[in-house]
Amino acid sequence: MLFGRIICFSLLFFTAHVFAADLSVSPLIINLDANINEEKSFSFTVKSNKKTKIKVEPFDMVQSYTGHIEFVKNNNPVEEDVASWLVLPTTPIPISPDEPLVINAGLKPKTRDSGEYWVAIMVTEDQPVVSSGIQLSVRYAIVLQVDVKGYHPKKRLRGELVDVEFSDSDGKAKVSGWFTNLSNSEDWLLSEVQIRNTNRRLVDKFPLKSISAAERGDRSSRIFPYAKVQLHGELNSDLDPGVYHVMVKNRFGGRSQKVYRATWIID
Asked: pTM of the predicted model, to two decimals?
């Protein structure tokens, strides 16, 4: 089921690009099993509605604090960057209309650590730079999920929730916190806030989600390796002044994590 979720997640980001202009690319997602210092070959196909040239470039994938994925061009990748593992054509490639172009590429991991790694390849039409006006350039993303078998085993899936805060803004009572993935694998995080009064009676419970998860209507938040994501939740009703015991339960990749506990005084 995780692979299916990956596809749905990725299509949300990339479908808009596929039919946006004169190019199309496939597949959108490539899953690779790789060993350190061994080049793994793969290919993808580009189609064009006109005679032109295309460029293929590596982009880092970075998860922002909102949970969204950002694509960052890596002009000077170092060995630690997954973008530096890619072996791609370095010059523009000619393409003819209605003739599928198969591009052969490779990936050679340079890490000693086993784990999941992500990188993107951007396909762009090679356009001359205009001296005036606005130049529109559409990028087509191909995402690579690479499962590397290295000398060191994968770290156990583990995360940490910190800086849980209560706020009352815009007339709504809210809770926020920061969750950090401390492992080198991505997975789904299910967080629930429970608030009890001094008699230990349950007053309220509600989920904490990333902004990205809330926008998609997901039940849980997807957290990438070593990413730090802010989680948000909204109380079902306002709290009366008093003392409350707060507990946040987290299940990350199906594993229970350390429970966050705190005592709040609401004025």
From this structure: 0.78
